[in-house]
Design brief:
about 230 residues; five-stranded parallel sheet; alpha/beta; globular
């Protein structure tokens, strides 16, 4: 069964033919319109011409590094970009996310996980379009125009920076948000110490969930940043 009511166009960017042979039929059977490119330059041309709804991107391309491809795509569109890469170092993951990627899956990968990450990214995009003034998922509600936050129906009072951080996490619900991105959201780049983010996220967690035994709403991505649990 297709995961969405209407087909989405997905652009796969990878120079490994075996990856394309695996991904194309599976995504097609899932109901996606699939296009592909094997170089960075070709991917940018196809991205411009076809305007895909999402991109699955390898970083190790033969002509342009994947991070540069992400930056150029981000100048044109907010289409979700899921990185699929053999690079294992946290620094590579952080750099890709900071460049504008929405998620990161390591090679070798499980097809079920990649499909789930792709579905989540597309559902998030649709949800944000439909609920431009309200975030409402997993008991957390943010009314942007009124700057009101509630959790399980209980009002939650946040400081301005706590609110800015939570909004940034909600904007990318289900996806990793790096320390750098959160520092930019709350301090406009004036602060660079990741410890400030840890302190403020700790305060947000305490205010949302005073019961420390409850399943967490905000997950820690060690050494990278945080992830707000996405819609179930």
């Amino acid at each position: 069964m297709p995961p969405f009511s209407t087909p989405y166009r997905v652009l796969i960017v990878d120079d490994e033919p075996q990856i394309l042979r695996v991904l194309r039929p599976v995504l097609t059977s899932d109901g996606y319109d699939v296009d592909s490119a094997e170089t960075g330059l070709d991917s940018l041309e196809r991205f411009e011409a076809a305007r895909p709804d999402a991109v699955i991107l390898d970083l190790g391309l033969p002509d342009i590094d994947g991070e540069e491809v992400i930056r150029r795509m981000r100048e044109k569109s907010d289409a979700p970009i899921v990185v699929l890469s053999a690079r294992q170092e946290p620094e590579d993951k952080i750099a890709a996310l900071d460049a504008g990627a929405n998620d990161y899956v390591h090679k070798p990968f499980h097809m079920g996980e990649l499909s789930a990450r792709l579905r989540n990214a597309l559902r998030y995009k649709d949800r944000m379009r439909a609920q431009a003034s309200v975030y409402d998922a997993n008991h957390l509600r943010i009314e942007y125009s009124a700057r009101k936050v509630s959790y399980k129906g209980r009002p939650v009072r946040l400081t301005r920076k706590e609110y800015d951080i939570l909004c940034m996490l909600a904007e990318h619900a289900g996806q990793v948000v790096t320390h750098k991105q959160l520092l930019q959201a709350a301090w406009n780049g004036a602060m660079t110490d990741h410890q400030y983010v840890r302190i403020y996220v700790g305060r947000i967690r305490q205010k949302l969930q005073p019961d420390e035994t409850a399943a967490p709403v905000i997950l820690t991505e060690a050494g990278i940043g945080y992830r707000l649990i996405g819609a179930e």
